[in-house]
Structure formats: C-alpha cells, structure tokens
Amino acid sequence: MRDIRSVEQTLSQNLSWHRARIKFVAAFIVALVTVKNVNLMEIACALDGKAKQSSQYKKLQRFFRFFELPYADVAQCIVKLLGVAGPWQLTLDRTNWEFGRTDLNILMLGIVHQGIAYPLIWLVLPKAGNSHTEERIAVMEIFIDLFGKEQIAHLLADREFVGKDWLKWLRNNEIDFRLRVRENFRVANGRGQLVSVWRLFRSTRVNQPLVIEGARRMWGDEWYFSGCYLGSGQYLIIVSPTPTDSAVSDYARRWEIETLFAALKTRGFCLEQTHLTDGERLSRLLALMAITFCWCHKIGEWLHQQKVLKLNNLGRRPQSLFRRGFDHLRRLIVNFSRFDVTEWLNVIKLLSCT
What we know:
The chain has a domain of 64 residues. By secondary structure, the protein is of the alpha+beta class. It is 43% helix and 21% strand. It is built from 12 helices and 11 strands.
C-alpha cells in the first residue's frame, strides 16, 4: 500500500505549484525511493497508476523536457525542511562523471548539517573540469538573492575553489570563508620574502593546527592563514579574510558535501545511472532528488532521536542518518501486506515545512 495522496497534500502545503505537477512530483518521489535508482525506465516501473510502463516513461520524458521548474521554490522548501535558522555554514564543491562521451559536471552549494550537506543551489556545467570564477559567483549570487548574505556564517571549499579574482569578490561582498590553498602558493613570510605557503607550517607536528600570527600578503592582498602538517609531506592550509582560531576545524566540515554526493550517487539514488545529459533536464532531476533526500534525512534524524544506534568498533554510526531514513521510508512504501498507517503519518509530518 502506498498512500501517495498524503504526500501530495503535504507537498501542496510546501510548494504553490499546479495540482497536476504536485501529483507528478509526489508519485516520482515515492517511485524513486522504491527503486533506489534515477533511471527513468526504472522509475516508470514503479509509478503509481494503471498506465503501461511505456506511457509512464513518456510522461517522465515530457516532465523533464518541458516543465519550467521554479528552483527558488525548491531552495526555500529545502531550507524549511532543514529547520535550522541561519546564518549557515555553506560548502561549495563539484561532482562529475561520464555518460558515454558526455561529461556531466555539477557545481553545488549546500548547507552543512548533521554530518552531511543539504543541497541548495546547483549549476550543471556545460564542460569537463574545474568551475570558473564567474560560475561560482553565479551560484553565490543566487543564494544572496534568495536568503541574503547575512545568512552566510562562512563558506567552505577545497583547493579547486581558490583564485585571486574569486577571493577578491568574496572579500568585496563581505563573505567570510575558509578555503584550502595549494601548498606551493607564494606568500610573504615574516621578513616580507615570498615563499611557498607550506614553509610557514614546516615546524608543526602532525595534525596539530597552527594559526599564523598576523596577515600575510598573497596576490597583492593581505590574508590570514591556518593549517597543519598531515604527514607524508602533505599539508592542510586554510586561507581566510579575517583571523580565526577555528579555521581548520571549520574547514573539516567541508567533507559533508562529499557525503551528500555519495548519498545522491552509489549510496542512495544512483545518480550516475541517469541517461539525462541535457543540463536543464538534469537540473530538474536534481531538484526532485533534493526534496527526496531532505525527507529521508529528516526521517533519519527523527529515528536517531527515538533510538541511538551503538557505534561500531571505529566509533562510527553503523548507518548514516540519510541511509537510516531512506531504508525506513522504503520499507514503509513497499510493505504491501502490513502497511503501518501510524508510522506513515509520522514520516509524512517530517515532509511538511510548516
């Protein structure tokens, strides 16, 4: 038994879309959780209704080809589902894979939360390789237009997301950040000589953070550096626009967006198995996945409040909150013989943004 109407009713409270679109999104979410795969042929098998699989598949194709999705509504819905007031720690990263000869490349901004990032804003890049400064600025400007820059505690990003113009734009827009820099970047030492930035940290012990006193010049501007030696000749070095003692520990949360990518891909919805290669269609798919992901994670948080699972020998949870919620929701949906109405109503409440 699958009570899709309750999903429709809850979504209609969160999204002011046409009833037919809400009905489709509700059916898609339930089907996605059922088959654990974003491949449209797989989704078509699980869509509710009497129509043949071929008809359901064509319906899916029409949606992703023609429906103009209000992404601002999706972002607002995700923030409400998050249920945590800003300002937020934001993390920016990119995931990519190949489908045949086509490179699929997604630049995503998320809110770090409970060991994972909630997907908020994304761009499907029409190319392989790193993002450009203009593309990063576009993502940040969308966030600022929707929520305001006062809702940014700071931005976290890896070494790919560092450059003179990018840092200057962040500073000019008064956005705090913790960005990892490459070890060979040239900065001024205490005597004003340009040296590779790793040399500022060569006396540190493994995993013992050091905050460099005072600003150091890089690319003609003054910045603050923190970092530590990781061992095996590797350094973790963080640049920020203001002095802070927590730069290294803050930056450690950047990894939460990697956990999100794993949930969207092999550990959850198998994003890499989509055959959608058009950028706009892939963006529409990501929007529906984002809502589904947030619902599953909220269920996982709720289950964790009901019962805390014992940590394994490595001191980690045996399941992530997302996976715990995802598996619980799937069991409810596919359990035809003994459908738990009370439990279903509980998880439906977690989809509500009100």
